[in-house]
Amino acid sequence: MNEWIENSLGSLACIRRGIGYSESTLKNNPEDGRHYINMKSFIKDGGYNKEGLKFYSGYFAKADVVSCRDLLLVNTDVTLDGDIIGVPAYLPSHLQNEEVLFSHHVTRLSLNEKIEPKFLYYLLCINTYRRWMLKYARGTTVLMLDMGAIKRIPIRYPVTKSNQRKIAVILTSIDTAIEKTEALIEKYQQIKAGLMHDLFTRGVLPNGQLRPPREQAPELYQQTAIGWIPKEWECSRLGKILSESGGYLQTGPFGSQLHANEYSFEGVPVVMPQDINNGSIEENSIARIPEERAMSLSRHRLQHGDVIIARRGELCRAAAVSRRETDWICGTGCFLLRLGKTKMNHCFFSLAYRYDFIQRQIEGLAVGTTMPSLNNAVMSKLYFPVLQPLEQDVIISKIDTQSRTMDKLEKQVEKLREIKLGLMQDLLTGKVPVKVDDPVADFVNA
């Protein structure tokens, strides 16, 4: 039976705002109060944000406690674009046996038996219902839900609760897969961070193994401007490295050389600081200029073997230029580094630049406060480790192995999110009917 009906939100739920707080009643530690859901406890696209939980030590009534069948909505939003107004969340499993309260910036929906909480949760996440919430939000800089108006929002749902549950189970299974994959990504990020620390402080021996730590073999290490490094390594300023190799560092074209109205959706990509992420250059939203214009900026065109570095904003952004990016343009706000005939590999340089021993130097030398930036004089003062090409290659290979694993997992998450979005639109609107005995995997793998 796949019959769907429609009722108002007010006929399916009792609606109640939470309790206010004062500075003295809001705590950061669980031993000081009860769990307290607030506007920071919500994720932009819907769901619970564990980082936003606070604790409340003031007075409350039994009616203020959240039950496992309740849904929670954000009723106050101070974001620029109204990103979280009306987004839903339900209590995660680890809080369902706790005494949980909610703030006056949050609205509780206590649902009757006609509708399943998780089905309604997913329904309120789709664009149709996000638009309803925005429609009933009042204010400019601070948005607030009209509690009376949201009761009129029409909710369309399957008559049979078993079908509601089936839809919720399908979507929950994808969320679970996403959460597990994200947990793996976080694990590999920690592994990669530990690996980079070991590789950039201990290096590798000819057999590919890490050198023994300094505590075990102090005779293998030397103290330098960037800390303790293997005795076989050198420590040299970037200015000296470039002067000895015939390399150079230059900025991208200034505004007077390349005007904003010259950018287009087609042509030669122009790399800006925001396009440099996690050691690579992202092409998704990159700006472009016509080929004829790019030819007049030949000194700013990238070559395989260069490094492109953000010189303002987030100063940890750097990427080794691959063959794919050859002839692209180094944009405003970036440095183009050409290493010349140095033995330093451009991929190794990019990795080292983003590592702690370079970033600490940058923190102390960067100019500006609201928008920190770098100039050629600052860059020339930075100390880098200099080591043999073979050892660089091994270090690059070990880090690349971890990066490829993380990239694969991130693509899995992206694919799962796309599947979820498609299924939400199909299942929650009745476009694709479900039966209680339909296998979950058939929908997830469709």
Q: Could you describe the 3D structure shown?
A:
The protein contains twelve helices and 26 strands. The chain has 446 residues and is α+β, with helices and mostly antiparallel strands. The chain has three domains: 156 residues, Adenine-n6-DNA-methyltransferase TaqI, Chain A, domain 2 (Alpha-Beta Complex), CATH 3.90.220.20; 132 residues, Bipartite methylase S protein (Helix Hairpins, Orthogonal Bundle), CATH 1.10.287.1120; 152 residues, Alpha-Beta Complex (Adenine-n6-DNA-methyltransferase TaqI, Chain A, domain 2), CATH 3.90.220. The strands form nine sheets. It has a four-stranded antiparallel sheet. A four-stranded mixed sheet has the order 3-5-4-9, with no helix packed on it. A four-stranded antiparallel sheet has the order 17-25-22-23, with helices on one face. A hairpin with a 7-residue loop joins β22 and β23. α5 runs antiparallel to α11. It is elongated and about 80 Å long. The model has no long low-confidence stretch (mean pLDDT 93).
What are the SSEs and their pairings?
Blueprint: E1 4-8, H1 9-12, E2 13-17, E3 26-27, E4 34-37, E5 54-56, E6 70-74, E7 76-77, E8 88-89, E9 100-102, E10 106-111, H2 117-125, H3 127-135, E11 137-138, E12 143-145, H4 147-150, E13 154-158, H5 161-202, E14 221-224, E15 227-230, E16 234-237, H6 238-245, E17 248-251, E18 268-271, E19 276-277, E20 280-281, E21 287-289, H7 291-295, E22 307-310, E23 318-320, E24 329-330, E25 334-338, H8 346-354, H9 356-365, H10 376-381, E26 383-386, H11 389-427, H12 440-444
Parallel strand pairs: 4-9, 18-24
Antiparallel strand pairs: 1-13, 2-10, 3-5, 4-5, 6-8, 6-10, 7-12, 11-12, 14-15, 16-26, 17-25, 18-21, 19-20, 22-23, 22-25
Helix pairs in contact: 5-11
